[in-house]
């Protein structure tokens, strides 16, 4: 090709010169040249055409080739250099390498319990549209490419049955078992990998390291009903205990896995058929410690906005995973509606709703975090350096004198005014009335097929609920949700409870729906067990939202959305419609730390055998790079956290690794909470 | 250039057109500059740029085709196949689902040797970055990138047979361990997919992955694998409403599971302490696929000289490469060093000695197998019965009993005509001093000295009995290690307390089956493929650091139909395991109530006649009988699914035999 091209090019340049000269008085001089010329002219025109077309295509090819070659070259160089660079990073990335030199060896078997959305799901049986995906990942790993290829099919397969909360007919999607389940939930998005690597360094391997993968979309009890996941976990723990010379296991649950494991603790000691029949001493016999990471013991406010409008800044874990995808129009224009439809079939989302009502989360005018300061960026630098302590405290106080405390208790408020005004200035809640009023729903048939439950609500009641100047606390919130998502809440209510127990001896608390709520269950009788609450602090975390009615009144549209325009000046806790508090980006400190700091501290009614609890906070230090990050998921790679875990796995007790380590205001906050112990 | 000169001329002549003149001036400038620039440009273009252009062109076309391929509806390949071959039959899973079969008994898979994946948990410096990456299975990419490092990590300690210090390589767990061996090369995947069709899933299927390099008891010592299998089977039975499991071992997994059945009922500390009724309570059926119950002759040549045509399945995967120089010039020696540290290879040395495998002048197969492989292969099931009869007259009696013979003439001569020098006697004379050369590779051959090598060759013929002496002689360390874990004899008295030791558990001739009269045992294997049965060896003119023995590939049988090809005598089998080894126990040793099978567990033989894939579109075929490809055989899958869904052996149709296994079994004089 190239030589051909050259041949065409050369004549062109020469001929163009001839062209002009020949148009002057050349003809008499050389006739034969004139003939030549005409031929040349036609040739030239052809050449010009050729040249134009080819140069375009050719240079395209050329550019592609050039880019490819460069890319390969760089890739090659990268691979050549990789061994050296890796060699340098290792000591820093690997606290285990250092600890191994100190002589640390893995003694206790370790069980990892992944949280929501971090576990992989694979297809076992599907509709024709999912042909060829048998045992391929739908969630995690390469699964998200399917989202791009056949979005609607993908969503259909990830949904559960609307009424039972189990498989829809003809579809079976199952968790990926073993360590593959959660170590790379999306490519490059390490979840457990760093931890597993470190554990392996001090001697862990398949026989004493287990990943308790479960289907995180199901309610906890249903994972047993459908997959026998709890039985499997029990048998695995017993096996590891026996096979490793009767060494008790250390359990490391993360995020929602924390609630799942609480459920397991109760399940395993309860007699069959509801429980696992392990007997009352099972936990004491088999478990050394539970090292909770980023625990969502008392729920996360995010879950509310997720259910209400599938929004919530970065809730939607979907979005964290595939950020570009959902915001663009892959699913047509109604990405959020689709997401809402799918995620409302997942019972597990309900387990993350705030638990404990107003006692814990605050009411209209009061919240445990009242003294919180929102200048995260500045505060974190000075606050804990002892020299600046006084100055800073007075600073903080000044801020408070100027401002009213943020009313975190109002988890949902419609309009900014409703989030700020004193409760006496707000109209009394009329939700109950609305509920009664529209008991007979006028179905909005004009919308055709109902997509979300919003389509089954009358426009009027939607507007009433969302009228400005209304605010909902952690207690009244449930009325709201019952109203907007009745099916989901009814289904989920059979599996989860969000209250506080008055009398834990009440036989009704033997039902499994209370097992994952730390405020409605007693810890097992295992005085030698230890419970750690390890979580990151220092990152603004969603605590409550300001909502508005969405302008569009169309069908198939979510009627509420976060009012992103509501904002305050710098240093405020309110940003784009969301009030922030301290936490790890997903779970507020209150939810993560309260049980360890107060609810279970010492011998309480929730912890009758006096299991030792430790609060281990990990401070976010800017710049937050990978290994020091304390964000909800990234904390799994935090070296301080990993070191703690390794030491516990190697046999250290909570006292030996330094007891409580607190940076946040969690102790003061829990002081303020008036919970009967 | 002639143009140029002429133009200058015209230029100096009186010109009338000013405009043109100006243009001409411009052109002239161009003329002086552009050719130089152009030629420079074009020169550059012609080399580097056209390379780029070419690459770009290829890439673009490739992407374009890829795009077309991806947008193509999924049904097209099937459509094409149907157009060529006529309508496809339903895969067995779909077919049986239509018949109404559903999940019933949980299923346990036990993979065989080399098909299970192994991953790295701890390694030396050279294996940096490979944490939890597959060393074995998958793409074998590391084998190419850092071969020596790879071989080092795949080896075990040659004294203990366990991990070498600082290296931990562990089996991959879960179904992914052995569903595909390498990309696109299925092992269990087809069976799993078909079982899933009738409703099986993770909670009712379990892959009992183990480290196939270790001796069976060592998998328990190091990884507690046997305990894990026990606990998993118990869990599956408990969570599936007391339904017993159907176990499907393949290849060496068959022996592993025999070992497991003894282990689980033996009292601790040696056993699992399940009590004498464990198997009866938990196992419905054991469906052995291609089981080398009595060992495979291949393993002998594997241990002896790492040869054996296609011994290491690894070689069939990377055929060109092992023979070339990835490891430098000493590929075989490295491979040998590596495989010799694997105790499990010794579990497949032929068992039962001359009683089973034949003596110097006698073998059970005798002359009844037709080695005209080509005619056999291309025929359908109906014809296989007739052809052996036709060709029988042409065939000589093959001395299969002589598993190794030195020289073709020796292999064929009558035993009275062979002069043999006694092995052990001669070895006494041999200087025991190691002939320490500066070979940097450890194989035991360098320790034994030239005299002994000569002695080995002088003994001339080895039967299944004397092969053990040979191996003890040439590789004493290996056999000493193996002797602690495996045994190859026939028990005289099974009640002798010594048989409670674990080294007898994987030898079906030295164990009793568990007391479980309701259990069923199936022997399922392919037939109709020539399978290595005996070898002709020669001594190589040894350079210092090579293996002194080689299969004499120049030894060929006379006719087209001869069983001797390239130094190897073939018999009927599935390409790896001879029929004798796979079928004898079910055909005779365990048939009815025998001393090996005191409770009378029903044993069934299910043979599958080999039919190679008719064309490339079929891939590895749906009627294959080859050792690994049989896992995709539709008839076999159907049998497995029916049993898993609750059928008994009687309902399947009992025995299903193509080969002469019953005739051979008659000829074997085994006390029952």
TrEMBL record, chain A:
Would you kindly state one Gene Ontology biological process term found in this protein's UniProt entry? lipid metabolic process
What's the superkingdom here?
Answer: Eukaryota
Q: Which residues form a coiled coil?
A: none
A GO MF label: O-acyltransferase activity
**InterPro entries registered for this protein in UniProt:** AB_hydrolase_fold, LACT/PDAT_acylTrfase
Naming one, the record's GO cellular component terms include: cytoplasm
What keywords are annotated for this sequence in UniProt? Acyltransferase, Transferase
Q: What is this protein called?
A: Phospholipid:diacylglycerol acyltransferase 2
TrEMBL record, chain B:
Q: Which GO terms describe its molecular function?
A: O-acyltransferase activity; phospholipid:diacylglycerol acyltransferase activity
The membrane-topology field of this record reads: Single-pass membrane protein
- GO terms for biological process, alphabetical: triglyceride biosynthetic process
What the entry lists under Gene3D superfamilies is as follows: alpha/beta hydrolase
EC number(s) on record?
A: 2.3.1.158
The record's InterPro entries line, in alphabetical order, gives: AB_hydrolase_fold (IPR029058), LACT/PDAT_acylTrfase (IPR003386)
> Looking at the keywords, is Endoplasmic reticulum present?
no
Chief subcellular location equals: membrane
Keyword annotations for this protein, in alphabetical order, are:
Acyltransferase, Membrane, Transferase, Transmembrane, Transmembrane helix
The reply on keyword Amino-acid biosynthesis is: no
Q: Which family does it belong to?
A: Belongs to the AB hydrolase superfamily. Lipase family.
Q: What is this protein called?
A: phospholipid:diacylglycerol acyltransferase
Species name: Gossypium darwinii (Darwin's cotton)
């Amino acid at each position: 090709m190239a030589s051909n091209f050259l041949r065409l090019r050369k004549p062109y340049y020469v001929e163009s010169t001839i062209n002009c000269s020949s148009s002057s008085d050349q003809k008499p001089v050389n006739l034969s040249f004139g003939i030549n010329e005409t031929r040349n002219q036609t040739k030239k025109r052809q050449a010009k055409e050729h040249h134009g077309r080819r140069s375009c295509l050719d240079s395209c090819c050329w550019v592609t080739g050039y880019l490819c070659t460069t890319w390969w070259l760089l890739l090659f160089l990268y691979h050549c250099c990789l061994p050296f660079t890796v060699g340098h990073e290792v000591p820093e990335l690997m606290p285990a390498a250092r600890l191994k030199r100190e002589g640390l060896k893995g003694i206790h078997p370790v069980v990892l319990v992944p949280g929501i959305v971090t576990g992989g799901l694979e297809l076992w049986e599907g509709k024709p549209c999912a042909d060829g995906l048998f045992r391929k990942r739908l969630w995690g790993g390469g699964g998200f490419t399917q989202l791009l290829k056949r979005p609607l099919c993908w969503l259909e397969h990830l949904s559960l049955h609307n009424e039972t909360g189990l498989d829809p007919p003809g579809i079976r999607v199952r968790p990926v078992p073993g360590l593959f389940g959660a170590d790379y939930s999306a490519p490059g998005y390490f979840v457990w990998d760093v931890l597993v690597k470190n554990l392996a360094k001090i001697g862990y391997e398949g026989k004493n390291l287990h990943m308790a993968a479960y289907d995180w979309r199901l309610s906890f009890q249903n994972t047993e009903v459908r997959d026998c996941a709890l039985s499997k976990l029990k048998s695995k723990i017993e096996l590891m205990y026996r096979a490793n010379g009767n060494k008790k296991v250390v359990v490391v649950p993360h995020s929602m896995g924390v609630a799942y494991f609480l459920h397991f603790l109760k399940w395993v000691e309860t007699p069959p058929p509801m429980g696992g029949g392990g007997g009352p001493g099972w936990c004491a016999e088999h478990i050394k410690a539970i090292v909770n990471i980023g625990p969502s013991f008392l729920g996360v406010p995010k879950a509310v906005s997720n259910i209400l409008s599938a929004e919530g800044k970065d809730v939607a874990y979907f979005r964290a995973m595939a950020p570009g995808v959902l915001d663009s129009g892959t699913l047509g224009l109604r990405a959020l509606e689709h997401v809402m439809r799918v995620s409302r079939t997942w019972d597990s989302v309900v387990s993350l709703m705030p638990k404990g009502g107003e006692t814990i989360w605050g009411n209209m005018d009061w919240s445990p975090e009242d003294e919180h300061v929102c200048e995260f960026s500045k505060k974190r630098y000075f606050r804990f350096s002892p020299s600046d302590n006084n100055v800073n405290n007075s600073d903080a106080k000044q801020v408070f004198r100027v401002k009213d405390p943020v009313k975190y208790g109002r988890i949902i408020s419609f309009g900014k005014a409703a989030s700020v005004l004193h409760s006496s200035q707000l109209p009394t809640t009329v939700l109950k009335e609305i509920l009664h009023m529209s008991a007979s729903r006028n179905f909005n048939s004009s919308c055709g097929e109902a997509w979300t439950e919003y389509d089954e609500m009358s426009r009027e009641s939607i507007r009433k609920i969302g009228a400005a100047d209304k605010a909902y606390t952690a207690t009244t919130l449930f009325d709201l949700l019952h109203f907007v998502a009745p099916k989901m809440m009814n289904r989920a209510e059979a599996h989860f409870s969000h209250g506080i127990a008055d009398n834990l001896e009440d036989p009704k608390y033997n039902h499994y729906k209370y097992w994952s709520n730390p405020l409605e269950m007693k810890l097992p009788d295992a005085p030698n067990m230890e419970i750690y609450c390890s979580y990151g602090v220092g990152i603004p975390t969603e605590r409550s939202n300001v909502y508005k009615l969405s302008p569009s009144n169309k069908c198939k549209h979510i009627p509420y959305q976060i009012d992103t325009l509501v904002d305050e000046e710098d240093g405020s806790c309110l940003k784009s419609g969301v009030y922030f508090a301290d936490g790890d980006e997903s779970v507020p400190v209150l939810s993560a730390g309260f049980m360890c700091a107060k609810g279970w501290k010492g011998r309480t009614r929730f912890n009758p055998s006096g299991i030792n609890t430790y609060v281990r906070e990990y401070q976010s230090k800017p710049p937050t790079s990978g290994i020091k990050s304390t964000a909800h998921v990234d904390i799994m790679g935090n070296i301080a956290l990993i070191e703690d875990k390794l030491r516990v796995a190697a046999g250290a007790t909570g006292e030996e690794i330094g007891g409580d380590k607190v940076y946040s205001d969690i102790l003061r906050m829990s002081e303020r909470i008036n919970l009967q112990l | 250039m002639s143009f140029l000169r002429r133009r200058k001329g015209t230029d100096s002549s009186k010109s009338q057109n000013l405009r043109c003149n100006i243009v001409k001036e411009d052109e002239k400038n161009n003329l002086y500059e552009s050719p130089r620039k152009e030629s420079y440009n074009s020169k550059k273009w012609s080399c580097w740029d056209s390379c780029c252009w070419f690459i770009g062109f290829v890439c673009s076309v490739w992407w374009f085709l890829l795009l077309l391929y991806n947008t193509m509806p999924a049904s097209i390949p099937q459509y094409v196949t149907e157009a060529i071959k006529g309508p496809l039959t339903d895969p067995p899973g779909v077919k049986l689902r239509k018949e109404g079969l559903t999940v019933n008994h949980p299923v346990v898979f036990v993979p065989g040797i080399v098909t299970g994946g192994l991953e790295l948990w701890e390694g030396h410096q050279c294996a940096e970055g490979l944490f939890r990456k597959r060393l074995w299975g998958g793409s074998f990419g590391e084998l190419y990138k850092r071969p020596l490092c790879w071989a080092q990590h795949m080896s075990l300690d040659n004294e203990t047979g366990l991990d070498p210090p600082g290296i931990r390589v562990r089996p991959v767990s879960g179904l992914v361990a052995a569903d595909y061996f390498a990309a696109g090369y299925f092992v269990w995947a087809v069976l799993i997919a078909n079982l899933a069709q009738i409703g099986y899933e993770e909670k009712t299927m379990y892959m009992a992955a183990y480290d196939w390099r270790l001796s069976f008891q060592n998998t328990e010592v190091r990884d507690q694998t046997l305990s894990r299998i026990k606990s998993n089977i118990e869990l599956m039975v408990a969570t599936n409403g007391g339904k017993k499991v159907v176990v499907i071992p393949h290849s060496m997994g068959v022996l592993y599971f025999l070992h497991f059945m003894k282990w689980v009922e033996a009292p601790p500390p040696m056993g699992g302490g399940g009590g004498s009724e464990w198997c009866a309570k938990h196992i419905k059926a054991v469906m052995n696929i291609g089981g080398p119950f009595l060992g495979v002759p291949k393993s002998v040549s594997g241990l002896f000289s790492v040869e054996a045509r296609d011994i290491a399945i690894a070689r069939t995967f990377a055929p060109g490469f092992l023979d070339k120089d990835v490891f430098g010039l000493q590929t075989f020696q490295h491979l040998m060093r590596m495989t010799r540290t694997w105790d499990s290879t010794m579990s497949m040395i032929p068992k039962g000695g001359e009683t089973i495998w034949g003596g110097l002048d006698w073998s059970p197969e005798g002359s009844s197998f037709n080695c005209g492989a080509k005619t056999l292969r291309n025929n359908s099931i109906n014809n296989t019965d007739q052809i052996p009869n036709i060709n029988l007259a042409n065939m000589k009696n093959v001395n299969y009993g002589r598993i190794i013979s030195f020289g073709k003439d020796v292999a064929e001569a009558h035993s009275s005509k062979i002069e043999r020098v006694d092995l052990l006697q001669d070895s006494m004379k041999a200087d025991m001093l190691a002939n320490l050369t500066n070979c940097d590779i450890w194989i035991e051959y360098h320790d034994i000295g030239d005299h002994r090598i000569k002695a080995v060759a002088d003994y001339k013929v080895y039967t299944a009995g004397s092969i053990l002496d040979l191996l003890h002689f040439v590789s004493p360390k290996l056999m000493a290690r193996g002797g602690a874990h495996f045994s190859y004899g026939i028990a005289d008295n099974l009640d002798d307390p010594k048989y409670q030791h674990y080294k007898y558990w994987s030898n079906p001739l030295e164990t009793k089956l568990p007391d479980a009269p309701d259990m069923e045992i199936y022997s399922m294997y392919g037939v109709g493929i020539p399978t290595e049965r005996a070898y002709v060896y020669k001594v190589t003119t040894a350079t210092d650091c090579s293996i002194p023995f080689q299969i004499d590939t120049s030894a060929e049988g006379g006719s087209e139909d001869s069983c001797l090809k390239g130094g190897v005598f073939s018999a009927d089998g599935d390409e790896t395991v001879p029929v004798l080894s796979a079928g004898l126990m079910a055909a005779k040793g365990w048939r009815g109530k025998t001393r090996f099978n005191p409770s009378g567990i029903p044993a069934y033989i299910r043979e599958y006649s080999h039919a190679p894939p008719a064309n490339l579109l079929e891939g590895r075929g749906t009627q294959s009988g080859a050792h690994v490809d049989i896992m995709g055989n539709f008839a076999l899958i159907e049998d497995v699914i029916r049993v898993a869904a609750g059928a008994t052996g009687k309902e399947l149709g009992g025995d299903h035999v193509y080969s002469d296994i019953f005739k051979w079994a008659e000829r074997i004089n085994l006390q029952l």
